[in-house]
Specification:
The complex is a heterodimer of chains A (about 325) and B (about 50). Chain A has two domains: about 150 residues, Orthogonal Bundle (Tetracycline Repressor, domain 2), CATH 1.10.357.140; about 130 residues. Chain A has 14 helices and no strands. The radius of gyration of chain B is 22 Å and the shape is rod-shaped. The chains are: A mainly alpha (about 325), B mainly alpha (about 50). At the A-B interface, α1, α3 and α5 of A face α1 of B.
């Protein structure tokens, strides 16, 4: 960003319009867009469930602080992801409208913004709530930015399988914020999101295969083809049924959750079946889009029931 | 008297966006102050106790 001081050094003959200071025109809304607010909302929600499901008390102010830090940490990850991926974002229809490809924010500004927020989120979470939770948040941010964004995303079709670990950690962070420890129950919540991530993203990738191919991102449909992707979606959706019900099977959740998980899991499998069997034309696109939308509802629904059961448990217990 | 526009003057869009960013930064700083104030009240003397 050239500043006003540079103007004095402009050579003679340069038009006056060129001398106007190149000050950023990014608004606060552009910076909010860097935080990927929709992704952040799911992160905050799953972290809230981990926090509420954890045994033991936590003051509401500290709970709010923990969630705020997790939200900001997730936002920082999003900003750093957009900084690194600006080149491929510009090539894909879905991401071309992001602030850096639109030239609203310079890449360096996004980098500074992301690092600052990440640092603040981790330090504040550690100082005010729990250093274990802060360490997990730092690991999550580093994993998402370095392991997923910088390494896996451009090098393997298993990118979102392994990278999905970053998105699955927020309930564990929420749990650690309350208890200062990690037990089997938050790991089951981790596992649900971890197994849910591949069919969720591959449904989107089926719709956006050309986008990913143009940008050179080796998503599964680009590298292995649509048929292999549909098969993988079926396998992961099948696996998701017992994994989704595991908190109930292990006795951590009630019958309402168990039944919800089984029914919602069966529906997920039904949507996956439609994706598998409808392979041509508009029907294939519609099936993949419905699978993608339903998968969001699935995760939200399961965690919502867990949240209600946790709140009920806290009120009664 | 020179009537040419001052080349160092920001455009209206630049001024608006700078104001938008300034307000956002002020709000974030305000939230941080309030947050630390309430956390200090909640934790009391324990705010200084931070076992790793």
């Amino acid at each position: 960003m050239s500043m006003i001081g540079d103007i004095a050094r402009l050579p003679a003959g340069v038009p006056e319009t060129a001398a106007r200071p190149q000050v950023s025109v990014a608004t606060a809304e552009d910076y909010v867009a860097l935080l990927k607010p929709r992704v952040m909302s799911l992160v905050v929600f799953t972290a809230l469930v981990g926090l509420m499901a954890a045994p033991g008390p936590i003051h509401p102010v500290l709970a709010f602080t923990a969630l705020l830090c997790i939200a900001v940490g997730a936002g920082a990850s999003g900003a750093l992801n957009m900084w690194y991926d600006a080149d491929i974002d510009a090539l894909m229809t879905r991401t071309a409208g992001r602030p850096i490809p639109r030239r609203r924010i310079a890449p360096g500004e996004a980098l500074g913004f992301g690092i600052t927020l990440a640092g603040f989120a981790v330090v504040v979470l550690g100082l005010l709530v729990s250093w274990l939770a802060a360490a997990l948040l730092a690991f999550t941010i580093l994993f998402y930015v370095v392991v997923y964004t910088m390494w896996l995303k451009r090098s393997t079709p298993q990118n979102i399988v392994i990278g999905g670990a970053a998105g699955a950690l927020p309930p564990v962070i929420g749990w650690a914020a309350v208890t200062g420890s990690i037990t089997l129950e938050p790991l089951l919540l981790f596992l649900i999101i971890f197994v849910w991530t591949p069919p969720h993203f591959w449904a989107l990738a089926l719709i956006r295969t050309e986008d990913y191919a143009r940008a050179g991102v080796p998503m599964l449909p680009v590298v292995a083809g649509a048929a292999a992707t549909r098969r993988q979606i079926m396998i992961y959706s099948l696996l998701l049924i017992p994994v989704g019900a595991s908190p109930w099977l292990f006795g951590y959740a009630g019958l309402v959750y168990g039944l919800t998980a089984l029914v919602a899991g069966a529906l997920m499998l039904a949507f996956a079946w439609r994706v598998w069997t409808r392979t041509e034309g508009k029907a294939a696109t519609t099936a993949a889009r419905q699978m993608f939308i339903y998968s969001i509802l699935y995760l939200f629904g399961l965690f919502a029931v867990l949240l209600v059961e946790s709140i009920a448990g806290r009120v009664v217990g | 008297m020179d009537n040419k526009p001052d080349p160092t003057e920001l455009t209206e869009e630049q001024k608006r966006s700078r104001r938008s960013r300034s307000i956002a930064i002020a709000m974030v700083l305000g939230v941080l102050v309030v947050l630390f104030y309430f956390v200090t009240l909640v934790k009391g003397p324990a705010v200084l106790n931070r076992p790793l």
